[in-house]
Amino acid sequence: MTGQGERLARVALSVVAEPGDDRLLALVERLGADLVLDRLRSEAALAPRFHGLEPARVLDDAVRAGLRFVVPGDEEWPASLDDLAAVASLQRRGGVPVGLWVRGPARLDRLAASVAVVGSRSATTYGADVAAGIGADLAHAGRPVVSGGAFGIDQAAHRGALAADGTSVAVLACGADRVYPEAHRRLIEHLGAEGAIVSETAPGGAPMRVRFLARNRLIAALTTGTVVVEAALRSGALNTANWAGRLNRPLMGVPGPVTSGSSQGVHQLVRSGAASLVTSGADVLEVVGAMGEHLQVEPRGPERPRDRLSHDQLQVLDAVPLAAGAVVDSIARTAGLGVGPVREALGALVRLDLVEREGSGWRLAAPARE
Amino acid sequence: MTGQGERLARVALSVVAEPGDDRLLALVERLGADLVLDRLRSEAALAPRFHGLEPARVLDDAVRAGLRFVVPGDEEWPASLDDLAAVASLQRRGGVPVGLWVRGPARLDRLAASVAVVGSRSATTYGADVAAGIGADLAHAGRPVVSGGAFGIDQAAHRGALAADGTSVAVLACGADRVYPEAHRRLIEHLGAEGAIVSETAPGGAPMRVRFLARNRLIAALTTGTVVVEAALRSGALNTANWAGRLNRPLMGVPGPVTSGSSQGVHQLVRSGAASLVTSGADVLEVVGAMGEHLQVEPRGPERPRDRLSHDQLQVLDAVPLAAGAVVDSIARTAGLGVGPVREALGALVRLDLVEREGSGWRLAAPARE
């Protein structure tokens, strides 16, 4: 358990620093929050940021608003986030957050099997339907669904999971006490009541671009894999996809019509090899599942009468013409079989509705013509 | 140039044997057509097949009907077909045809750069539109388009190529003098007049299932790569796809809505790694092109004003809130910049229509909110 001093230092850092500031977070990793905070306090240029800041009061107010502040070392701290330290030290991007503000009953340490479902805010109805379906499939498999609470794909994924009585978590770019976008008030309140609202931004913080980008890394890091359902070539969802790649988490893309701009970004991810193609929740579970856990049976078309034919019957069926009928002799020649076995096979094929009479000959019946 | 005796022996084999008979074709490769024909003639069981057969007359009749018979050794023989010998000896499937019956001005030895575009007979309008577009793109790039003349994707691919004044070739399962399906009489006559109709089946031969399967191997072997546009899980197009794989030819798949059964087979090919995903004729050209020849510029969204901003301007833009305005001091704190540079940057951002006044503060203008 992290001491109260360290916790309050992290609260203070959460207020004065921007989410995902790689230099600051690297220092915190190396020196601890207390020391970093002391240093920042001593820098004259930053003095205005500390003006009137009382971390204990920030924390109290947050708790009264139903929030909690989860920091590394807490039982609820999700170990998956620690992977951000490796990426930060190699690529000087992001880093482990000083802490996460959380509202809602879902515990962050129970998200180890969760899956991110993200995509365009300007989703098509196709994309929204697919995202909702995947959200529901994941929920049925007991997998929490993590997304960004945004319009379009995010919303559909959350709703799909909630409709299937699953756990869903929204990671927001604004404070976890706020609602953004405002039009999603009901959805976000629902997630706060049944799942969780998570943010690296301190309570009251407004959604700003830099915070969206920092937020995206958390969506990728909290989850065991990321599914992009629709994304145009410049979609913010591709930023989350990049983070999944940096974190070596499986990245998946749902294809769509090549004529739809909303699928272009996804197709590019698949074409470049960054993402694997998935078409359903079952496909997603196969990719993120423990080895063998969700191995899917290859989908097959429905069984056809042809599948149960003997070798002779197949030979004969292949020798029966499509349109104009052929006499038994001609069929026997083509099939390379004697007339006797051919007559026998024809009888069986007629009973199976695969072959029919045509004048003095035989031809394929409709069900065999495919 | 192949001698007349060998040629007539191959005509005879083309009449008495079924296309793609791997044992027979392997014997022809090893012993030559003359010897194999002699052996077959001596087998009592096959006597009926030879009854009344006069190869010279078959050839004469065919020539009168506008056909020619192209055999290995002829100048027009497409070298690409010889790859079928390797597959046949390793996998005991198919084999090099004894000859091809051809109608139309397109020469088979000019198909080295051709691309196969195949797919479901029961195509959706989406699939047909995409196939026609790819057919046209290939034609514009000077690439002949090869397909099977069937309903759906095949037809659309042929028509797309013809509409772009390109060369298109149909490989049929029936004799090259026949029309199948009958509803495609105009298309097939058009292909015979402008491109070519090709068949391994002797003139007059009816379309039968075994001939469709043998035909599919020729579509894959004649071309430098195969594109599957739509294919349900049991589609015959997947048989052509398998042949492309066996022949080590690039196999490509066009994705579609995951809710469309017509795209399921294609998605499975991409998921399994058998096919690469393509979304356009340009993608196809990149895959089949000689190295570097058709390397595509990665598609990018349109350039945005943001792309031309200075570092300070970007910092300030990221610090400007989305909805409620923020005063200059607050923006400066968030951006970590002095008030002077922030005022300067805000001026530039307003001129670019990225930031606007809101009360005493500033907020993002609509174009910057995406």
Primary descriptors:
11% strand, elongated, 16 helices, alpha/beta, homodimer, 370 residues, 11 strands, 9-stranded mixed sheet, 45% helix, two-stranded antiparallel sheet
Structure description:
- The structure is a homodimer.
- Chain A is α/β, with parallel strands linked by helices.
- In chain A, the strands form 2 sheets. In chain A, strands 1-2-6-5-4-3-7-8-9 form a 9-stranded mixed sheet, with helices on both faces. Chain A has a two-stranded antiparallel sheet with strand order 10-11.
- In chain A, strand 3, helix 7 and strand 4 form a beta-alpha-beta unit.
- In chain A, helix 2 packs across helix 3 and helix 7 packs across helix 13.
- The relative contact order of chain A is 0.10.
- At the A-B interface, helix 7, helix 12, strand 9, helix 14 and helix 15 of A face helix 7, helix 12, strand 9, helix 14 and helix 15 of B.
The percent range for helix content of chain A is 40-55%
> Order of strands across the widest beta sheet of chain A?
1-2-6-5-4-3-7-8-9
Ranges of chain A with pLDDT <50 over ≥5 residues?
none
Compute the CA-based radius of gyration of chain A. 29 Å
Number of strands of chain A: 11
Mean pLDDT of chain A: 90
Class from helix and strand fractions of chain A:
alpha/beta
Number of helices of chain A: 16
Oligomer: homodimer
Main sheet attributes: strand count, strand direction, barrel closure of chain A: 9 strands, mixed
* Greatest interface: A-B, 52 and 52 residues
Distance between the termini of chain A: 67 Å
Cα shape of chain A: elongated
